Task: inverse folding
């Protein structure tokens, strides 16, 4: 049986990354919209991993009850930016920082402004991504990836999304929004978490989907 993956997001930028990384699994990869699922989820976990599982479980339940995809694997991620100068903020509240309807242009500038007194060595930050996968039998797999960097003094780059324009990677001398997507997938927090999840799924379903 060929399994299908539903990734619990409506973000097209994220879906492009997901499809590129998981392409060699041999599974159809659908967004929530493509699967016909509309699901409002309250992310009330205390960690990235808990929130990822909450989202994945909610979409998995919908897929089994309202869609003809009972054999699906549902993946969800909870990702965010943790800035050391700000005590780890915005952390698990990254998407809701300053309000869900606030643009990332504003969010990014506020973070830069809050680090006005921070020296270069004090601008340390990291992206964190936790992936949860709910399998057809209801079991859950977890992976996590991180990438270390600095908060830039000003936004740069028009690639990526979210906080990418202010996340500076010293070894590449550019922000996450300036790095080509293929390279970004190799080094990004979500890329690392997805690669780890892909390995787990290959072990469980690799033969079935060839």
Result:
């Amino acid at each position: 049986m060929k399994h299908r993956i539903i990734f619990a997001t409506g973000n097209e930028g994220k879906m492009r990354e997901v499809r590129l990384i998981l392409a060699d699994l041999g599974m159809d990869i659908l967004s929530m919209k493509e699967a016909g699922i509309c699901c409002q989820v309250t992310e009330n976990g205390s960690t990235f991993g808990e929130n990822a599982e909450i989202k994945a479980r909610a979409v998995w339940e919908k897929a089994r009850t309202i869609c003809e995809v009972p054999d699906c694997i549902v993946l969800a991620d909870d990702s965010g930016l943790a800035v050391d100068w700000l005590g780890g903020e915005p952390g698990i509240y990254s998407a809701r920082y300053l309000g869900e309807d606030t643009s990332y242009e504003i969010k990014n500038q506020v973070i830069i402004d809050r680090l006005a007194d921070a020296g270069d060595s004090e601008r340390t930050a990291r992206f964190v991504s936790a992936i949860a996968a709910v399998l057809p039998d209801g079991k859950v797999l977890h992976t996590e990836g991180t990438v270390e960097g600095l908060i830039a003094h000003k936004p740069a780059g028009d690639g990526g999304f979210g906080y990418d324009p202010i996340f500076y990677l010293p070894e590449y001398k550019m922000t996450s929004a300036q790095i080509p997507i293929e390279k970004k997938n190799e080094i990004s927090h979500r890329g690392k978490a997805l690669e780890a999840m892909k390995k787990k799924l290959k072990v469980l379903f690799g033969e079935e989907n060839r």
